[in-house]
Design goal:
The complex is a heterodimer of chains A (about 210) and B (about 375). With about 210 residues, chain A is of the alpha/beta class. Chain A is built from 7 helices and 9 strands. In chain A, a hairpin with a 2-residue loop joins strand 4 and strand 5. Chain A is globular. Helices cover about 50% and strands about 15% of the residues of chain B. In chain B, the strands form 3 sheets. In chain B, strands 5-4-8-9-7-10 form a 6-stranded mixed β-sheet. Chain B has a 4-stranded antiparallel β-sheet with strand order 2-11-1-12, with helices on one face. The longest helix of chain B has about 40 residues. Chain B starts with a helix and ends with a helix. The chains are: A alpha/beta (about 210), B alpha+beta (about 375). Chains A and B meet through helix 3 of A and helix 7 and helix 8 of B.
């Protein structure tokens, strides 16, 4: 799968911010296996950009194109089929089912289109240090733990693209490193493209291309 | 809360509707075929209603009237009675001393139940065969003959009788011998072959005779409410006794149909309540549903899963009501009808079919509604 941006620009950001950008109002193709780093200070539209790519918002000009098809023409069924098999995401605001247990949160994603076995969940949780939380309600976990849950969740499905929106904001350096390693391993396994948006260059990320928003 | 109102409403509505359908079928099978039929048909004479107001008008049937009667789907066939426009005097012989003006009528032979081979007449024949109503013979035998000390006749012996028929018109007088060849249970008249009446009208009075005032209709069911409605609308007159069941039936059917309409209304109301409940439920779990859609669950999969939850509810409502209807019908057949074989102790397949249809309908509506609500998220 390929994602292409064609003169993409949000409708709500000032012209001067757009003109200096390496992303907005550019024609960009994301190729398989690329590791993209998007860097931008807060308020410059990082989250909006990720949401545009994922098809959650439409307040932009230009086009986001999945495999030659502009996503503005997609209906809910088409989006769900891409989200099930080709595009995975870690939201900045995580979006977990806070009433459910950690394991339920992971299983609900895994069962939709299983890429790993159930035992892999436990192994991943152990690796990121949240194994003891698996049967606890999600709302009892700290934000840092919830961030790791969201990361593990995003890795339960097949994908060609992994979108990460400030995924490590509440992790310490050691945990960042562990998480980043896991993400890169999983992406490499799938020969997938990572698009990671952050405030500054992310440590431990072997990015192949950095774009300033 | 609205969920339970919905369940109860749906159950009552379905129960009412199914009961009404079964009752409608019962009424139809109980109030059918109450008149003796020789060939599966009822024969009924119809005339135009003569009232004080319309007395001076003509009460004869035009060709258009007859064509319209024949055209009705519940009337199999119809034929006018044609009558004599000339004067006929009948004189009995020594066994039956009487003289009287009489009338003769003719009708298409297919409408007569008893036609002996002798029932033909052609110009030049002196003997005119006559079929009389068996009621007339009975009246003569029981009311007329004993008082006058006259002989009584059996249906067979009366055929030996010859009556002189003096026919008279502007073109002169001629005598014939009338021979009663049969009696009829169906037709209340003196019937002679059509050829005789037609010839007589032409020969004696140079006309085709008076326009018909009576039409005999042949119908599968004299109690068909549609037939009665037609007769009433056209202001025709028909034997009330023969169609009494039809009148009762149409009243009962109207009542049952009204109840069924009420049942349908209740079902609709229940479905509206369900839709409110669904909207509430989906609104309440809006965030979770949105999140599921966000992580890749498809709206069609979600709607199937959500609406599948309701299938057992709908199935149990329909099955329970069907069982109640079957129980009620059995009780009616057993206690009220005393196990009469006019009714089957089991509910009619149509009732089961309607129940199945309602089930499919409610599941379908439910699914579409959930789907619509989810797509709106």
């Amino acid at each position: 799968m390929q994602i292409r941006l064609q003169q993409l620009a949000p409708t709500f950001i000032e012209e001067e911010k757009i003109s200096g950008s390496q992303v907005w109002k550019n024609d960009i193709v994301f190729l398989p296996g690329e590791k993209i780093q998007i860097v931008a200070p807060s308020g410059s539209g990082k989250t909006s950009f990720i949401h545009f790519l994922y098809g959650m918002r439409t307040d932009y000009t230009g086009e986001v194109i999945y495999d030659d098809q502009p996503i503005s023409s997609f209906d809910a069924e088409e989006f769900s089929s891409y989200r099930k098999q080709k595009v995975s995401i870690v939201f900045q605001d995580l979006r977990l089912f806070t009433e459910q247990t950690v394991l339920q949160n992971l299983e609900i994603k895994r069962q939709l289109e299983p890429y790993h076995t159930e035992s892999r969940i436990e192994a991943m949780a152990r690796r990121l240090g949240i194994a003891s939380k698996l049967n606890k309600p999600c709302k009892t976990c700290s934000y840092g733990e919830q961030q790791r849950i969201a990361i593990i969740r995003s890795l339960q499905q097949p994908f060609d693209f992994l979108l990460l929106d400030e995924p490590f904001s509440h992790l310490d350096d050691a945990n960042r490193k562990l998480a980043m390693q896991l993400i890169e391993e999983e992406a490499d396994q799938r020969k997938a493209t990572i698009i990671l948006a952050d405030l500054k260059t992310t440590d431990h990320y072997n990015s192949t291309k950095t774009l300033n928003l | 809360m609205s969920k339970w109102f919905g369940y109860v409403g749906l159950s009552i509505g379905v129960l009412l509707l199914l009961c009404c359908i079964q009752m409608y079928i019962n009424i139809n099978s109980l109030l059918k075929n109450k008149n003796p039929k020789k060939d599966g048909f009822d024969y009924l004479p119809i005339t135009k209603m003569i009232t004080d107001e319309n007395m001076p008008n003509s009460h004869s049937f035009t060709d258009a009237d007859i064509a319209e009667i024949k055209k009705q789907p519940f009337i199999d066939d119809a034929a006018p009675f044609i009558s004599n426009g000339f004067v006929i005097k009948a004189t009995g012989g020594t066994t039956l001393p009487f003289t009287s003006d009489v009338f003769l009528e003719a009708i298409n032979e297919k409408f007569i139940d008893t036609i002996p081979p002798a029932f033909t007449w052609k110009e030049g024949d002196n003997i005119v065969p006559v079929i009389i109503s068996s009621d007339y013979l009975e009246l003569y035998n029981t009311a007329f003959a004993p008082g006058r000390d006259l002989p009584q006749f059996s249906e067979k012996s009366i055929t030996a009788l010859l009556v002189r028929l003096d026919c008279e018109g502007v073109n002169g007088t001629e005598s014939f011998r009338g021979n009663i060849v049969a009696t009829s249970d169906r037709i209340n008249s003196f019937i002679v072959p059509e050829s005789f009446i037609k010839w007589g009208n032409r020969h004696f009075v140079n006309s085709n005779g008076p326009a018909p005032n009576k039409v005999l209709i042949r119908t599968k069911d004299a109690n068909d409410p549609q037939l009665l409605k037609f007769i009433q609308e056209k202001n025709y007159r028909i034997n009330k006794d023969k169609t009494l069941f039809g009148r009762i039936k149409s009243v009962l059917q109207a009542i049952v149909s009204g109840l069924a309409a009420f049942g349908v209304l209740m079902i609709l109301l229940a479905l509206v309540l369900f839709s409110f409940y669904l909207q509430l439920m989906i609104a309440r779990s809006k965030e979770n549903l949105q999140l599921l859609l966000m992580i890749g669950y498809s709206p069609s999969w979600l709607s199937k899963t959500v609406s599948r939850k309701w299938i057992p509810v709908y199935v149990s409502i329909i099955v329970v009501t069907l069982v109640i209807v079957a129980g009620l019908h059995w009780a009616f057949q057993h206690f009220v009808m005393k196990d009469s074989n006019e009714l089957s102790p089991f509910i009619h397949p149509i009732v089961i079919a309607v129940a199945a249809l309602l089930l499919i309908l409610s599941i379908g509506i439910n699914y579409r509604l959930v789907r619509k609500l989810l797509y709106r998220l």
